[in-house]
Design goal:
Layout (H helix, E strand, L loop, with lengths): L2 H9 L4 H22 L5 E11 L2 E10 L4 E3 L12 E4 L5 E8 L4 E5 L4 E7 L1 E10 L4 E9 L1 E2 L8 E9 L1
Antiparallel strand pairs: 1-2, 2-8, 3-7, 3-10, 4-9, 5-8, 6-7, 9-11
């Protein structure tokens, strides 16, 4: 088929039903690509570590949360929303010292959970003290969190982390 024949076929008058079908198909395709592009990720994580002495260090797990969203405290009761949690892979180069610490959360009664919830807005820095058995170690693990706003919650998310302490 020549270019002129293709152009003529595209420009030829269409039946009204065919035109409606093409418009609907084009709308669906455009809409699906827009939905695909709108993946919500209102939480960003970053990690760091600092030696406090030759054999002690603190691991920092920082979250930045978009306005209008929040994540839940590590101390949130199990009967409500998914609490933020951290699992550290046991390695021979270090040992955990105590439990992870967190800033003071906002506490509010949440009717949808029928309980008080404890959460963080904007940002939070979680800290884990470790005892070093080597001069340089990698602290590996996984964190789990759920993010919500006043209209919905996104499914809980699991993220792996790897933090170099030297």
């Amino acid at each position: 088929m020549s270019l002129n024949e293709i152009t003529y076929a595209l420009m030829a008058p269409m039946k009204k039903e065919d035109l409606i079908k093409y418009i609907l198909l084009a709308s669906l395709l455009a809409g699906s690509s827009t939905l695909y592009a709108q993946v919500l990720q209102p939480v960003k994580w970053s990690y760091a570590a600092k030696k406090t002495r030759n054999d002690d260090a603190v691991v920092f797990l920082k979250t930045e949360i978009e306005d209008g969203w929040h994540i839940y405290s590590t101390r949130q009761k199990d009967d409500g929303p998914v609490k933020t949690s951290f699992t550290f892979k046991p390695l021979t180069g270090y040992s955990l010292q105590g439990k992870i610490s967190e800033p003071m959360p906002v506490t509010k009664y949440e009717p949808s959970f029928a309980m008080n919830v404890h959460y963080f807005e904007r940002s939070a820095i979680f800290q884990q003290k470790i005892k070093l058995k080597q001069t340089q170690v990698e602290v590996k693990g996984q964190l789990k969190f759920m993010v919500c706003n006043d209209q919905k919650c996104l499914p809980p998310e699991d993220l792996d982390f790897n933090i170099l302490v030297k």
